[in-house]
C-alpha cells in the first residue's frame, strides 16, 4: 500500500476539532491562516499520500477561507507550487491580482512562496462540506521556465478534457484507492503525476515547447494507454484509430512506443488476452460461452482468438477455463475438509 497518513477531526469532541485542524495547517509545508463559520464543530479529514517527487493531499472540510500572508512566508518558505483540483463545492483563488472562481472538476494553480488567498464553500445544503485534492510540487521539480509561471497564478484550468481530465482521473484514483498500489510504486506514480501536471501547465502557458521532449512523450504515452484501456472492448480499436484520436500520425504513434517492450498492436492484443484470461476463470462468468467473453474484449474471430490465446498462454481458452475451474474445486474441497475436522 502507498505510504499514507490520515487526520480525522472526529476523533475529538466537537469543541476541539477546529483547534486540531489549525494545528495541522500550522505544521504543513505552507501554513495559512484559516477562518470558518464552523469552528464550533469542524468535521474534517485530510489524507496525505507521499509519491516521492510530489505529495498529494485529499481534503474534506466545512466551508472555509484561508490566507497565505507575507509574514507566514517569511516564517516558512518551502518553495512549492500548489496545483489544486476542486472535487466538491466552489472555490475561489486569488494571487498577484488575478482572481478566479473554481467549479468542481477544475484546477487552480498558485505559488506558495507568494501571498495568496483561497476560499472553498459547500454548495449542497444538506452537506456543508467541500473537498479538493492538492498536488504539492517543489519549484525545482517542475521543468518549466519559472519566469513564465506567474501567468497561471490564481487561474482556472479544466479537469474534464484532454490532459487535464487524465490528470484529474489519476489524482482521484491514487488518493481514492491507495491500497491498490505497492509502496514501491510511489516514485513511479509520482513521476507520472508530475509529467501530466507539467504537460497540462505547459499547454495553458501556450508554451508546450517549453515542456521537455521526454516529459511530453511520457505524458502522451500515458494518455494513449489510458485511451486504449477505455476502448479495449471495441473490435475496431487499432493503431490508426488510436493515432486519429490523438491527432498524430501512425508513424508518430509507433515512435511513441519504441521505448516500451511492445508495439501498439501487441500492447492492445496483450491487454485483451489478459482480460479474457481473467474472465475465463471467473466463477460468475462460468455460464457465458468462451466466444462471448472473447467478443467482449474485441476478438470477433473465434479461430484467431483461440490461436492468439494458445500462443500467449500455451493452452486453448476452453482448457484454461477448465483448469481454472478444477483449481477452484480443489481449493473448495480442501477448505471443506479443513472445516469438517473435529476441534481439538
From TrEMBL:
Keyword Hydrolase: no
UniProt keywords, alphabetically: DNA-binding, Transcription, Transcription regulation
Gene Ontology MF: a single term: DNA-binding transcription factor activity
Coiled coil region boundaries: none
Domain named HTH araC/xylS-type: residues: 222-323
Signal peptide range: none
Keyword Transcription: yes
PROSITE patterns: HTH_ARAC_FAMILY_2
InterPro entries: AraC-bd_2, AraC_XylS_family_regulators, Homeodomain-like_sf, HTH_AraC, Tscrpt_reg_AraC-type_HTH
Name of the protein described by the UniProt record: Helix-turn-helix protein
Record organism: Micromonospora violae
Classification lineage: Bacteria, Bacillati, Actinomycetota, Actinomycetes, Micromonosporales
Amino acid at each position: 500500500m502507498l505510504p499514507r497518513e490520515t487526520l480525522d477531526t472526529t476523533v475529538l469532541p466537537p469543541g476541539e476539532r477546529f483547534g486540531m485542524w489549525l494545528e495541522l495547517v500550522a505544521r504543513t509545508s505552507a501554513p495559512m491562516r484559516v477562518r470558518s463559520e464552523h469552528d464550533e464543530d469542524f468535521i474534517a479529514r485530510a489524507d496525505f499520500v507521499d509519491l516521492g517527487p510530489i505529495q498529494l493531499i485529499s481534503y474534506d472540510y466545512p466551508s472555509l477561507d484561508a490566507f497565505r500572508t507575507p509574514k507566514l512566508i517569511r516564517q516558512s518558505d518551502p518553495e512549492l507550487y500548489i496545483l489544486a483540483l476542486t472535487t466538491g463545492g466552489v472555490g475561489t483563488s486569488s494571487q498577484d491580482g488575478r482572481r478566479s472562481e473554481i467549479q468542481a472538476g477544475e484546477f487552480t494553480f498558485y505559488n506558495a512562496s507568494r501571498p495568496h488567498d483561497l476560499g472553498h464553500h459547500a454548495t449542497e445544503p444538506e452537506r456543508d462540506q467541500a473537498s479538493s485534492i492538492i498536488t504539492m510540487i517543489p519549484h525545482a521539480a517542475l521543468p518549466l521556465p519559472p519566469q513564465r509561471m506567474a501567468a497561471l497564478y490564481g487561474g482556472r484550468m479544466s479537469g474534464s478534457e484532454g490532459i487535464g481530465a487524465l490528470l484529474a482521473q489519476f489524482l482521484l484514483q491514487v488518493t481514492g484507492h491507495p491500497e491498490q498500489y505497492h509502496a514501491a510504486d510511489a516514485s513511479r506514480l509520482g513521476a507520472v503525476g508530475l509529467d501530466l501536471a507539467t504537460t497540462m501547465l505547459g499547454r495553458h502557458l501556450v508554451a508546450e515547447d517549453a515542456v521537455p521532449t521526454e516529459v511530453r512523450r511520457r505524458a502522451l504515452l500515458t494518455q494513449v494507454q489510458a485511451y486504449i484501456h477505455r476502448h479495449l472492448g471495441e473490435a475496431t480499436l487499432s493503431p490508426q484509430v488510436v493515432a486519429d484520436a490523438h491527432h498524430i500520425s501512425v508513424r508518430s504513434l509507433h515512435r511513441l512506443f519504441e521505448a516500451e517492450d511492445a508495439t501498439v498492436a501487441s500492447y492492445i492484443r496483450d491487454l485483451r488476452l489478459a482480460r479474457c484470461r481473467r474472465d475465463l476463470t471467473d466463477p460468475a462468468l462460468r455460464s457465458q460461452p468462451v466466444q462471448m467473453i472473447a467478443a467482449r474484449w474485441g476478438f470477433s474471430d473465434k479461430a484467431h482468438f483461440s490461436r492468439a490465446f494458445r500462443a500467449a498462454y500455451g493452452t486453448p481458452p476452453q482448457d484454461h477455463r477448465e483448469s481454472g475451474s478444477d483449481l477452484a474445486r480443489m481449493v473448495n474441497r480442501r477448505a471443506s475438509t479443513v472445516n469438517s475436522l473435529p476441534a481439538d
